[in-house]
Amino acid sequence: MMALLLSPRPSRAGAFTGGDPCSLLEGLPPTGHPARQGPYKAQFKALDKAGRNARKMLRVHKAFAKKVAKLLAAGAKVFHPGKNKTVKSKRAQRFLEKHVLGPRAALVIADDRFEPPMAVWAAMIWSACRGGRVDVALEQARRAGRTHPSLAAFATLLLLDAGKTVQARHLLPEVAQAGGDYHGFLATFVAAELAKTAPRRRRLHARASRRVSTPDQGEAVRRQAARLAKRRKAPATKRPSKKGGK
Predict the structure, then answer these.
(1) CA 75, CA 18: separation in Å to the nearest integer?
(2) What are phi and psi of 97, to 5 degrees?
(3) pLDDT digits (tens, 9 = 90+) for 54-63
(4) Which of 140, 168, 172, 243 is the most buried (most CB within 10 A)?
(5) Can you tell me the distance from the alpha carbon of 127 to that of 132, in angstroms, rounded to the nearest whole number?
(6) 77 or 236: which leads in pLDDT
(7) What ranges do the domains of the chain cover?
(8) Among 143, 136, 220, which Cα is nearest to 186's?
(9) Phi/psi class of residue 18: alpha, beta or left (left: φ > 0; alpha: ψ in -120 to 50)?
């Protein structure tokens, strides 16, 4: 499921955000969050100690990935026992009670599969991103974004930062919450960037500005404001006249 052998790559300031795009990730569990006291306690402890050391961050990523892979393999054994074998209900119930149910769940059910909780996805994406492996962070954010809009927003941000606007636009439906609205700073920020009309861009930008809570978010909003101002000043492209055509 997860990439385990990674080498760090040099980090860079995001051309799009003006700072470290990793810093705009949402969903990392704060101190005291149940996810930090559950089966991933050791991994979260290592994450806190890694600081900005890229190699340590990738070791943390590997530790999270190894734990998740082990849990998924155990779940597959219980719920997909093999040809001509049936799922044992008591065994399945024990697995669910131990690993899936409760505030410290190691796995959650998403559609017809198990996957890590959002807090663990966020920690893995964060450690890959801070380890210089933005490619891995993007791949995992896209996968996690199928069920977590804020992580889809982060994948969209990384695509925008790489200049891949068309691909970023394809993720917008996953960034929106039920009902089509955008919750949180990052979802609103990327939606403003990709809005097709100037009034909608301005509305979403203003909403994102009101949701700023960190210096990195503030810098990203300032850069976006400059881009929007540039768009307003740019001369409108004239469409070719149809008159005189055959």
Answers:
(1) 42
(2) -65, -35
(3) 999 999 999 9
(4) 140
(5) 9
(6) 77
(7) 17-144, 148-231
(8) 220
(9) left
